[in-house]
Amino acid sequence: MRFDTKIGIVVREDLAAWQKLNVTAFLASAVAGGAEGIIGEPYQDGSGNLYLAMFRQPVLVYATDAEGLARTHARALSRELAIAVYIEDMFKTGHDEANRATVRAVPADALPLVGLAVHGPRNALDKTLKGLTLHP
């Protein structure tokens, strides 16, 4: 099935494995919480157990270096796409309010990005994510 929109998560490739997973999870939650109609219906197994609903479409995860993240961030901003960011200082905080404060303290072009998520029209995301490789 081909979707009109796309979800891309970009993670800095030099992070520890646990950091990559943590960043990916937080960024995916931002897309889920911020994009209307992107979540499908709850699941149910053959025994009647209920499970939480998930994204209705695939999520593509990419790996790149700090320069690639900065370039992708600038492209996403210029196309006015829905963006979530995760910066280095967020590894040192313990709650959502502190995370928002760390991002608010840094201008967009100086954010020490370790990951970002973008959601929007397929064509715009293809241009924004051009040159990135899927995470191994």
UniProtKB/TrEMBL annotation:
Organism: Sphaerisporangium rufum
Name under which the protein is recorded: DUF2000 domain-containing protein
InterPro entries reported in the protein's UniProt record: DUF2000 (IPR018988), Pep_tRNA_hydro_II_dom_sf (IPR023476)
